[in-house]
């Protein structure tokens, strides 16, 4: 939940402007909650061989797309009406960027759901499920924490999310090596392992998008763009 840091925004004489900024933040977090649930449901659908849940995720992606359009329109109207400056402009710009990441997270969840339907049709086996659950849990936590960092305007928490990205990459590479071993041991595993690889790649991308959101939180709070910046320099920016 937002804390006292949240007052960095919404302290204008115009109550209407305050409400518009609060509504923008609220709608972004609603979209974030939706895609967070989509990722969790997609992983559950696959590991539980639940085709009904997988189909719900696939269909639910349309709602994510509609939310992206609505938030974009709302942000553009704020710029046109209010001509925000400094911190308020950073908030609006960051939201415009971050909804793209959320929409793409929704796309990755949809990809996982499609693979869940494919694997369910091919027959039940737990091959690759340990890797999916492990990486899925990790990136789901990253996404949750990046959204929480936004809600709290917490640059330090955003930095912690960014630091997790390297660990996810390492876990993804380790899982890929394990799946390659399965394929070498039995060629009948190749088709399934390739599907699992697509799922793991989608999850790794969810982690990347969570990291992007965290970068934008730092931009909002600190006023500095830390994209393409070393972790050491980002730590210095957050520590100022």
UniProtKB/TrEMBL annotation:
Record GO biological process: intracellular phosphate ion homeostasis; negative regulation of phosphate metabolic process; phosphate ion transport
Keywords noted in UniProt: Cytoplasm, Phosphate transport, Transport
Cellular localization per UniProt: Cytoplasm
Protein's name according to its UniProt entry: Phosphate-specific transport system accessory protein PhoU
Keyword Disulfide bond: no
Record family assignment: Belongs to the PhoU family.
Domain spans labelled PhoU: 29-115, 132-217
Organism: Marinobacter psychrophilus
InterPro entries, alphabetized: PhoU, PhoU-like_sf, PhoU_dom
Subunit structure: Homodimer.
One Pfam family in the UniProt entry: PhoU
Main subcellular location: cytoplasm
NCBIfam families registered for this protein in UniProt: phoU_full (TIGR02135)
Role summary: Plays a role in the regulation of phosphate uptake.
GO cellular component entries: cytoplasm
